[in-house]
Amino acid sequence: MFEYLTGLITMVSPDFIVVDVNGVGYRVAVANPYAYQEDDQQAVQVFIYQAVKEDAITLFGFATQAEKRLFTQLIGVSGIGPKSALAILATPDHQGLIDAIQNGLADEIGTREDAIAKAAELAGMRTYAVVSLEPESDDLSDLVGLLSSSKMSNEDLIERLKELNGNGSQH
User: d(Cα 85, Cα 80) in Å, to the nearest integer?
Assistant: First the structure.
């Protein structure tokens, strides 16, 4: 297992970066590869999660240990794999997601009704009414809607997140 790599960024692509460590180039999948372009020809430290599957060994990289911890929490949620977790990390605000995981609201991807029932249970409420307020859609509410869809595949989730990221909205 690797904890981190320290080296030069020698390549940036849409899905990964290459970190040169003493002449060996490590391909590392990261949430936002273009954030590393600013570090061109400067030594950087990238925290690493190594995923070993039957047909591949993949390195996932993170700018901070906190981001790596959130990644490991995300992949612990039923239905979220490493690639989906990276796509989620590419979104600008993670605090709501962190709160949901820590409060037991994201132990598996379920329906909106499942989340409401769990929230009521945690609040000790036996009866409750749900009132839906429909604000203007934004990237975060679209992401929450995607995560609520129990039939969304990881690939569909990634594609939708890429679409959201391409809308040009900045936070």
Answer: 6
